[in-house]
Amino acid sequence: MSSNNKTVRCALSVSSIPDITEAINNAIDNKFTYLICPLVNPRLKREYIADNLRHQQLPLTRSDLDLTAECWQNYVVGAAHQFYDCDSEDETIRNNSICGLSEELNIVAHLNLTNYLVPLRSDKIENFSRIINNILLNKLTMFNVIIRVPLHMNNLDIEIENVISRSNDDAPWYWWKKLRTLCEENTRLGLALEMTNDLPEDENEIERWYSEPIRMIIIPTSLFLTNKSGFPVLSKAHQKFINQFLKLDIDFVIEGANRHPERGMSKYQEYLNYIFKQFQTNSVDKKTQFTKGYEDCLQNPLQPLMDNLESQVYEVFEKDPIKYSQYQKAIAQALIDRVSEEDKKTKEIVIMVVGAGRGPLVKMAIQAAQETERKVKLYAIEKNKNAINTLLNLKNTDWDDRITVIAKDMREWEPTEKADILVSELLGSVGDNELSPECLDGAQRLLKDDGISVPYRYRSFIAPVQSYKVYSEVRRCKEYEHPYEAPYVILLNNHCRIADEQFLFEFTHPNRAKKIDNNRYGKLEFKANFDATLHGFAGYFDSHLYKDVDISITPSTHSPGMFSWFPMFFPLKNPIQVKQNDLITVHFWRCVSSKQVHYEWCVSSPTNSVIHNPNGRTYWIGLH
Amino acid sequence: MSSNNKTVRCALSVSSIPDITEAINNAIDNKFTYLICPLVNPRLKREYIADNLRHQQLPLTRSDLDLTAECWQNYVVGAAHQFYDCDSEDETIRNNSICGLSEELNIVAHLNLTNYLVPLRSDKIENFSRIINNILLNKLTMFNVIIRVPLHMNNLDIEIENVISRSNDDAPWYWWKKLRTLCEENTRLGLALEMTNDLPEDENEIERWYSEPIRMIIIPTSLFLTNKSGFPVLSKAHQKFINQFLKLDIDFVIEGANRHPERGMSKYQEYLNYIFKQFQTNSVDKKTQFTKGYEDCLQNPLQPLMDNLESQVYEVFEKDPIKYSQYQKAIAQALIDRVSEEDKKTKEIVIMVVGAGRGPLVKMAIQAAQETERKVKLYAIEKNKNAINTLLNLKNTDWDDRITVIAKDMREWEPTEKADILVSELLGSVGDNELSPECLDGAQRLLKDDGISVPYRYRSFIAPVQSYKVYSEVRRCKEYEHPYEAPYVILLNNHCRIADEQFLFEFTHPNRAKKIDNNRYGKLEFKANFDATLHGFAGYFDSHLYKDVDISITPSTHSPGMFSWFPMFFPLKNPIQVKQNDLITVHFWRCVSSKQVHYEWCVSSPTNSVIHNPNGRTYWIGLH
């Protein structure tokens, strides 16, 4: 783990600072990454007159000359110190608040800070949201607005509670949901969760927070306990909570007076760094090594029949430690079932690998034959000329004469003999989306009547998902006119499932139906586990290779350590608010024409969406 | 009324036709405008095999050679004869239906018909909606899909009722609402209402239908009574119902056997034509004469400070029979109040008309002075050089020396004396939207301390609105990147108000506040009168000229016959479904900067919308 020298990002939050240079130096000396501090002295009285604040000859706040521009940007996050009540019923308070907040936002822009932290304390936030929305949409500003909310209502201090009036759906998540909806899921909005002594009891509630754009977790020093050696530590419950969020790229914030003055503030940072290192050590495996950095990035699905895969793509996929060993297991079992122990010296089995790529399945077939001591004759069929080159090189160096390389589309090649076993790996994130059904239907001419297809079955699974991050990324995507109508391949991280996944479509091979029909229609009904915003649907698959040998990326049955596939995400044009126990009804269509395959989808409860991707206008997979 | 030679458009709907040429000739002979008939013989058995229908060597339907292309297009509307159950739980029925319907839609496209009539009989319509949506979005097809629904559930015949399973929100409007939502409010979707013996008792329900894209009203012959002379007539209730829909550009459809065979089918058409003529005669007044053809057309609001009005615009506005007589009344009353009967020979009153245009208000001031025998000195201030030319011509020909024409912006002119009465007509559809507040605030320097502004007050009013027509037009608008963020001036016709209008903003003149602030924030709460789709908000104004003399375009107080202003429509990005008695909470902001004025708006209940028009990015009114 020597390469893991990254340390935790941890900020120090202070409520007043006589000298900012000193404060920053102090924070850095105590190993904090940056300082969070108010930008305006809270004691400064400000009074609203028309649209200007009247100040005496006093400056509003310290001079920007106190620090270099670089220092402001890298070491200071601004915090709205006082609670601005921009939605007070009292017009004077309202107007004063709006002006005060606007003024601070101007300072943040002027200083070119990266982040600005603002507390949210109720759901009466229309005026507040308007101010925030306008600054986020102002192209001359760059900073993120980090909304600070408590994890538990107990955390609200009394002073603030008197200022605001309470309302119905009165829990911090609803305030936040309202704000992000009014601001049209802007990507520059983030969240800072204030950790509280009491944590939400419902696991679902924590999971729901997990799917929001958490940038910081604020930990008051008052939450720390003192261990036997006199060092600050967190309770088991708080440790567990923190660990759940470490998979997101978050910063910690230490706030409040030093409860262990004999040791200095650095002890808090050191403790969190210890937790962070532990997490890193525990979570490093081959899978995360390969998938690191891909979290929540939108990728367009492959077009395997229209485009040739690149060498790099093959290389990544070939490194999967699980997938190929499962294939070897499946082929070995099929060989044993096909050729009895007595016949193994005499009987030769024909295996065809269709879509052989650079040969990994050919290797697995060879190894399976060696392992089971069965005689095999192998054909490697591949349409990509570049991969053919690799295969022919392998044949010349590693493989013997029993292996024949065929440079053809599997749907067109006319063989002289038929196969006992047809092996393929043509699956996409939801199984059929890279047109495995169409390819294997076209290739099953190659198979003997009693031949075996590996895989012999694959199924897609769908789950309703909340993910602010993914949805806001989709909205920003400029590639399509209707970006919300294309599915994306994505390593879903910053998301939660509103209900467990359900089975959608199934394909089996060989397909002995009189007339093969790969059109599909499916209707699924999910019961929402909690109040949530439905942003779209995650798609997964499982694939049965031979008998009970299978591979899966479906959450409940995921093959441990397999990283070749990320899930698929089917967005909705508009997020749908769902209540706990609401029935979410979704309809999916797989539509096949002579030229292409596409999906359409819509939601019909709790409310109706539009029908997405009509006629495949935004997304389709070409058959040629 | 001699110019009113338009006749009613009335179609004849038949269920089977041995010979189509004969059927058309028969319809036209009986004064019908066109024929509605099934395109495929319902007795033809069709069976689904994969994605093709298997036919014997029989043709599916009659040859397109039976009629000329022009005849097909002008005289035939296709009707889906049988009820296709594209959403049956039975996969065979479902697939057969989908193929049958798709096949008919292909015939409609091939024959290039204008309209295709399809019945809707339940809310299980996801597959049906997908087929319809795909054909509507296919750019190679042009026809409208007219959805046929009964007005009252009693109308459903038993045979059909057995086919479908019933569900919750089970009334025809909900089926239709679901379809149009799934199809993203496509403008090529229309409605045909089947008139039933029982009509909806709730006026709201009829009004709600009125706001949908009604293209046809189907009247079964069985609904007709026979009057004393033996002619077919409708009941008073049915007549009343029809009259409510005649303001929309609808066709009638007569369907069913001739119940008055001795008279021929033409009698039905003649009766409806009689009703139509009566409606036309009753509704023709000066107002409809000027507004005819403007119904539901989107117009961009004027930019009076940035652009000069054209002569034609002035001419239309000057023809308003009500507005100027109200101004004359107001000025006369102000003159009487300002100058007592004793002083009228000696005391001279200064009237300034700011934004005089081509002089109508100057004329009203002159007439008011003549009427009240008060001495006045008049200034006509106008910034538009073209209008100045008209004013100077008028001064030379009609007016005397007491009238001075000033070619200046009212906010900049420096007069040598001040006015007793400042008269203006700077109002837009919601009062302040053509920047009357800013102009009059800038002009009140011209007014004596105790001077009078005519008008002295104006207010905006807002009502929540359902209108498929207007919303779908907004969605089609390509002028802006975010067309749903601009308000439009529009003669709202095909719409309904979900609740009565409420007061929003108020402005008074002269404004003697220490520091003038024309920013406004308003929050309104409406209780929905019925289940509906909220597409946006209608805006109106009233204006108090002097004392109780006023003008209004607010529905509950509209000045009879006044046509100078159409309402304004503030759209929503996404329609919001509301339930009866839901609280609709809307927030409006009027935002003033040194360069421009703009509005922002959002809905916060029953659900949250986005904030529309942030920073005035889509719509703003320039101050210079």
TrEMBL record, chains A, B:
Domain PRMT5 oligomerisation stretches: 458-621
A biological process from GO: methylation
Active site: E425, E434
Domain of life, source organism: Eukaryota
Keywords linked to the UniProt accession: Methyltransferase, S-adenosyl-L-methionine, Transferase
Native source species: Brachionus plicatilis (Marine rotifer)
Transmembrane regions listed in the UniProt entry: none
Annotated protein name in UniProt: Protein arginine N-methyltransferase
Domain spans labelled PRMT5 arginine-N-methyltransferase: 286-454
Marked site: Critical for specifying symmetric addition of methyl groups: F317
Binding sites annotated in the UniProt record for S-adenosyl-L-methionine: Y314, K323, Y324, E382, D409, M410
Gene Ontology terms, MF aspect: protein-arginine N-methyltransferase activity
Annotated family: Belongs to the class I-like SAM-binding methyltransferase superfamily.
